[in-house]
Structure formats: structure tokens, C-alpha cells
Automatic annotation (TrEMBL):
The keyword NADP does not apply. Pfam families: Fer2, Fer2_2. This is (2Fe-2S)-binding protein. The keyword Flavoprotein does not apply.
Length: 168
């Protein structure tokens, strides 16, 4: 069972290869093998959402997946939301609305919100609350986080920019 496995995938638009143990989680692969430490580990049990990344466009818990399961897949981490360095509109709104305190939950909130706004570009406040209900913020910064996500949707619907570096 401990035989190493060769995997190949896209991470933040780049081709990545690795040789991993079958038991290595995707979160540990991203953090320890690729040095993408923006993906945070809180509970490591699928509860807190801090480890959320995009897998083929959908938000998933990186602590609940094995790296071998994403062989051939397309993964985007929080670092990949703004590949050119400039903040996306969503990130800028998190800053503007003071939606981060310690910031530990922020990567998971951003990746969750990013995927959610693609699926639901015109959300109600209730829908935003529901969308982030699987992400825990220990600083209880939920109201500003909801405000930031709603402000992003409203600006986009008013014809605002999608944000620099926004992945397709
Ligand atoms: S670390 Fe993955 S859900 Fe908490
Ligand atoms: S800002 Fe601290 S956990 Fe959310």
C-alpha cells in the first residue's frame, strides 16, 4: 500500500508532476510538495472549509481528497485566483469590507465564494449565507464576508470588471 504513485495535474495553470504516497492528502501535496501554503488546514476533517480549493471548477475540501485522486485534474488554489498579482474584485472587496480578521479562513472563503459567484451571479443575501455556511470563521467575521461577496456580485451585475487575473 505504500508504493509511491506518479501523478500529473494542472495547478494554477501550470503543469505539475509529483511522486506521492497514496495516503497523501491533496492539501498536504499542495502545501508541502508545491509550497502553496495559502491553502490552510484547520480541522483536517472536512468541517471548517479552510482547505477549500477548486477542482475542475468546483469547490472541494483538499483535506478530504488524496493527491492521487486528482491525477489529470485541474486544481486552482487561492494563489491561482490572482495569477498576475493584482487583487481580483472579490479579494479587493474582502479588503474593502474588512472581511478578514486573522485571515485564517480567508483562502477557503475566497475559493468558495469564487465558485459560488460563477454558479449564482445574482445571489440574495440568504443565498450567500447558505453558500459560505460550510466555511467556519473563528473570528466570526461573517457579516463583512457576506457584504464583500454581495458587493462583488452587485458590481459585476452593474457592469463592473471581473477583476484582474480572474481565472476563466
Ligand atoms: S481543513 Fe479541510 S475542512 Fe477543515
Ligand atoms: S478571519 Fe479569522 S478565522 Fe476568519
Amino acid at each position: 500500500m505504500n508504493d509511491m504513485v506518479r501523478i500529473q495535474l494542472q495547478v494554477n495553470g501550470a503543469n505539475v508532476e509529483g511522486t506521492v504516497e497514496p495516503r497523501l492528502t491533496l492539501a498536504d501535496f499542495l502545501r508541502e510538495h508545491l509550497d502553496l501554503t495559502g491553502t490552510h488546514l484547520g480541522c483536517e476533517h472536512g468541517v471548517c472549509g479552510a482547505c477549500t480549493v477548486l477542482l475542475n471548477g468546483d469547490s472541494v475540501r483538499a483535506c478530504l481528497m488524496f493527491a492521487v485522486q486528482v491525477d489529470g485534474a485541474d486544481v486552482v488554489t487561492v494563489e491561482g485566483l490572482a495569477p498576475e498579482g493584482a487583487l481580483t474584485d472579490l479579494q479587493a472587496n474582502f479588503r474593502r469590507h474588512h472581511a478578514l480578521q486573522c485571515g485564517f479562513c480567508t483562502p477557503g472563503m475566497l475559493t468558495t465564494a469564487h465558485a459560488f459567484l460563477r454558479e449564482c451571479p445574482c445571489p440574495s443575501r440568504e443565498e450567500v449565507r447558505e453558500a459560505i455556511s460550510g466555511n467556519l470563521c473563528r473570528c466570526t467575521g461573517y457579516i463583512p464576508i457576506v457584504d464583500a461577496i454581495l458587493a462583488t456580485a452587485e458590481a459585476r451585475n452593474d457592469g463592473g470588471a471581473q477583476g484582474a487575473g480572474e481565472p476563466k
